[in-house]
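At this stage, I needed to go through a protein sequence along with its fold in token form, as given directly below:
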Amino acid sequence: MEFFNSAFGKNITFVRPAFFKISGFIGIPDMNYYYVFLLFVFLASVLGNTAVMTVICLDHNLRTAKYVAVFNLAFVDLLGNTVLVPKVIDIFLFNHYYISYNDCITHMFFCFICLGMQSLNLVALCYDRLIAIMYPLHYQVRVTPKKMLSLIGSFWLFVVFCFLILVGLMTRISFCESVVINSFYCDHGPMHRLACNDATPNLVYGNLLIALLLWVPLLIIMCSYICIGRTLAKISTAKERVKAFKTCTSHLSLVAIYFIPILIVYNMRANIHPNARIINLSLTAIFPPMLNPIVYVLQTQEIRTSLRKILKCKKQSQIALK
């Protein structure tokens, strides 16, 4: 990170504490029940996303562009909750409130990568649905597994690059007084507000990332569905319109699960108690990874069929062994 430090002047010394204190849930009554609830959500997320990835790997019929994106979504959801939830439980349930400077920066980096990739995954799935409905005859050519892998790979590189810059800017901050982070993890906003030097670059870049990784993907998805709606309106029969729209319901459910809680929390952040805001933010980060695999199992015929096929084969093999 010396590049970031030297780029703004010579012989600059930044004050970096040995540790931070995570204080988000401290003082809220009866939180042990919430930590048990988080553990349940984490286990459900691990089981659900692992099941979706396993089904996609085992069934060759699901080796399509759409399920490349679904697999990556499940992987990001699994990784995100694995990075976040066990650490939150360790900090607050076992009273390990202090975290070293380097560990905190690393934890923030991986948390933000997963949060950023969730929205970009929804853009990748939106692209799949847009081409499938607007250009059905060209779908097999325009949306191939290789092209989807390239798209998702570019998203990963973009997100990693964005948050490497964020981490670099964070190392320029001096923490002269308080080291108490008023959040449930090493969050960029509460951290840069503790700075005793100029943190304007962090504030500006943080807002830029929110726009790039939250509002721009939402705008792209909304514009895509306007185009999809116009295409569906041109279909002559209502039955065919409903059939085409049903292929979008699982994706629309994922979009609603991800964006609606975030929009509610950000719009109401000035009108709710800080404790309620922190709990709502934690649910916003943790709940979608648990719900996403449930949505795909319940609303996607291909995954349900594959899951039944795998379970049937397993049952038959057990009978044969007996």
